[in-house]
């Protein structure tokens, strides 16, 4: 696979060579079939950067659970060299692609490194800013490019340029649909991508149709973790759309970022009706709940007084094909809150 900026038309010689992290390889019969199909080269825009693919990547390495989910939901496990993610993968027994997790190699339970990508002979790393990519780790699209490895950046994590490394360029669910459609083009599985997007839009629309009027919506605060300062989500992270489509009023909707921290005084001031816990295993959701219900400054917050604390998995809340089901599940809970 060769990833490049749009340039001059492909020559016949260029079609016979695929650049990977290990050097040049002669094209296979499958490569020739792809070229003959007329689909390639294909150009997509990812975080504002147009990139052209001469063929479908064959050895993709993903970082984090939601990103692996996207590949698996599209049926692209045969194009993967492996995935990197912590021990906690959410409730994979409930997803349609659970077998893929046992089929594709689990390369590491720590963050991705350049060494992992090289050892896997990756031709593409699918990760995101703060989802594997970061200057502090030295793993960035630019550093991987120097190694001959391409990158695809999770759209939810696109940097928006408003303040340092703040993230988010579109509504979170639109980011999911954008990545499905882009990957559909890159891997020439547009029909699969279109079917998923149609299914997810229908599922979200059905849940949103049952939501109460805006004035009657319970306010919801997303609690990711942290005791000195809570980590939460702004308008560009998955929980924003999950909460609002489910019929809630996102307490931190004015934060023009994805995942970020706020002060407890802000939580107290906004007095959420519901606290939504992000469960990623350690500390456990029960431990987080115990902290919230015993933390004195929160004692008079409506969600604490009325014991309105709901839990969703990390994989439900980051950009993932699990987002639409999360909307449905949270919507049912919020309808009970409203009814009460």
- Give the % helix: 25-40%
Percentage of β-strand residues: 15-25%
User: How would you describe the oligomerization state of the chains in this entry?
Assistant: single chain
Measured on Cα atoms, how large is the radius of gyration?
21 Å
* Annotation field: number of helices: 13
Count of all domains: 2
Pattern of helices and strands: EEEHEEEHEHEHEEHEHHEEHEEHEHHEHH
- Please identify the top-level CATH class of the largest domain: Alpha Beta
Distance N to C terminus: 56 Å
Largest sheet: 6 strands, parallel
Structural class: alpha/beta
CATH fold type of the largest domain: Rossmann fold
So, CATH architecture of the largest domain?
3-Layer(aba) Sandwich
The fourth-level CATH homologous superfamily of the largest domain is Nitrogenase molybdenum iron protein domain
Q: Rough shape? A: globular
Number of strands: 17
């Amino acid at each position: 696979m060769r990833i490049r900026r749009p340039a001059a038309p492909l020559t016949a010689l260029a079609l016979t060579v695929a650049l990977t992290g290990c050097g040049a390889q002669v094209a296979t019969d499958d490569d020739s079939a792809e070229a003959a199909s007329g689909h390639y080269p294909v150009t997509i825009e990812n975080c504002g950067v147009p990139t052209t693919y001469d063929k479908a990547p064959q050895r993709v390495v993903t970082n984090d659970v939601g990103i692996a989910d996207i590949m698996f939901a599209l049926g692209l496990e045969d194009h993967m060299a492996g995935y990197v993610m912590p021990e906690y993968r959410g409730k994979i027994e409930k997803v349609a692609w659970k077998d893929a997790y046992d089929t594709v190699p689990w390369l590491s339970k720590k963050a991705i490194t350049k060494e992992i990508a090289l050892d896997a002979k990756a031709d593409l790393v699918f990760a995101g800013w703060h989802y594997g990519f970061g200057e502090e780790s030295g793993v960035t699209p630019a550093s991987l490019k120097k190694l001959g490895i391409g990158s695809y950046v999770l759209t939810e994590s696109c940097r928006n340029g408003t303040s340092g490394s703040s993230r988010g360029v579109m509504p979170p669910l639109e980011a999911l649909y954008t990545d499905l459609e882009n990957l559909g083009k890159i891997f020439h599985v547009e029909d699969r991508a279109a079917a998923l997007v149609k299914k997810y839009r229908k599922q979200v629309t059905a849940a949103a149709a049952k939501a109460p009027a805006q004035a009657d919506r319970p306010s919801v605060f997303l609690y990711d973790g942290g005791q000195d300062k809570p980590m939460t989500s702004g308008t560009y992270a998955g929980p924003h759309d999950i909460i609002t489509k489910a019929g809630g009023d996102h307490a931190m909707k004015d934060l023009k970022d994805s995942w970020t921290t706020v002060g407890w005084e802000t939580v107290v001031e906004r007095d959420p009706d519901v606290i939504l816990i992000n469960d990623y295993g350690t500390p456990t959701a029960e431990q987080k709940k115990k902290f919230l219900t015993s933390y004195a400054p929160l004692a008079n917050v409506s969600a604490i007084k009325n014991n309105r604390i709901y839990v969703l998995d990390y994989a439900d809340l980051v950009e993932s094909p699990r987002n639409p089901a999360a909307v449905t599940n949270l919507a049912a809970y919020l309808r009970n809150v409203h009814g009460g």
